[in-house]
Amino acid sequence: TSMLFYGSQENSSTFQQLSDLLGLQRREHYGDYLLNYLLVLLGYERDSPQYVLSANRLYVDKSVELEANFASALERFYRAEALKGDFANDGPRTAEEMNAFVSNVTRGNIKTIIAPRDIDELTRLVIINAIYFKGNWFKSFDPKDTRPGTFTLSSGQVATHPKMMNQGGHFWVSDADPELKADVVDIPYENEDYSMLLFIPRDPTDFSLDFLEDKLRHHNGSLFDSLYRRMISRKVNLTMPSFEIESSADISETFIALGVTDVFDQSKSNLFDISTNYKDLHVDYIKHKAHILVNEEGTEASAATAIVVGTRSSSSPIRISANRPFIFMIVDKRYNLALFMGKYVSPGGDKRPSSSQPNQSQDVGEEEEVEQASRSKESQEPKRVNIQFPFRS
């Protein structure tokens, strides 16, 4: 997204829509944003290559000449290459190269993001961003304590989840969080710079995630600061599902719903600062694909797109159970940065073989009810869970 912002002409409506999305009210703020973005990328390369891999790349048709400032920004701030190809005559090979790049960054978890039919003679450039995260829990869940359990769907119906993990211990929590109206628990990874946050609506009869989603989608760094200030260390009996899920979608409608419309309209799009010889560039669609595995050992997550304040402890444990729809977020606490955000709504969204999914047909039907509105019209693969990728490029 910020690459498109950099390529938009200042004072245009395209520029304004993208700056509003990024929370950049004035152009001079953008220099700080780019510098911070670069420092984060360098930090991952230097300190955390075994936990986080992130890469950007731009594929450009051979007919396109990039503006010098745009090409320079790609290298300086995004650490991105700009590779040229013959889209009209060699589209399938170019798509294969893009997919190989994504597969390499995500360690094979995402093998395809672009189909050969996505590249044709009218394609001028493709922006690829990929990220991979793998982390073991600070304290693993004992597989002997994993057992089938109930999971209440958004409809109120009760299904069976084959693998509900259980663990007792001290966690940072904000139970009945006043701002989010949810129980929030921080589950640390072995590298304590990272953790998974679970957001479970406090009202046990409220299975909608709409309020939470709206709060978290529009968050800024201050949300994490205020949330961690409200957290205390408590003894918790925690129950959560083990799951493996995928998301594949054209997320253009998401951007349009957030007010970014001009870049999708050829007559209104102003991406004049990208190319010297093409002044009619516009976005056809934005493809996003994600994969996440959460089990007793830890988390492995991938995505691709075309603060301790209290030490009080409770003597008696509280029970927090993610046995109904919840939101999860993988957080880098050094930067107040959400690497991944998603929601889990149904055991039917798991990639497990159907034989291990009791009540599967009921669960899948429930999930379609929840996710149908944002499903890609072209996707031949059922969308399992909406995994967002806030670390935008």
Summarize the structure in words.
Strand 6 and strand 7 form a beta hairpin. The protein is an alpha+beta fold and 393 residues long. Strands 4, 5, 6, 7, 8, 12, 13, 14 and 15 form a nine-stranded mixed sheet that branches. Strands 2-1-3-11-10-9 form a six-stranded mixed sheet, sandwiched between helices. The model is unreliable at 307-315 and 350-393 (pLDDT under 50). It has nine helices and 15 strands. Helices cover 26% and strands 31% of the residues. Residues 1-347 form the Serpin domain.
Number of strands: 15
- Terminal Cα span: 5 Å
Please indicate the percent range of residues in DSSP E strands (runs of 2 or more). Answer: 25-35%
Q: What is the radius of gyration? A: 22 Å
List keywords for this structure.
393 residues, alpha+beta, Antithrombin, Chain I, domain 2, six-stranded mixed β-sheet, 9 helices, 15 strands, serine-type endopeptidase inhibitor activity, serine protease inhibitor
Summarize the structure.
The protein has helices at residues 2-7, 13-22, 27-47, 68-76, 87-105, 210-217, 221-230, 252-257, 360-371; strands spanning 52-61, 81-85, 125-136, 147-152, 158-177, 182-188, 194-201, 232-241, 243-250, 287-294, 298-304, 318-321, 326-332, 337-344, 387-388. It is an alpha+beta fold and 393 residues long.
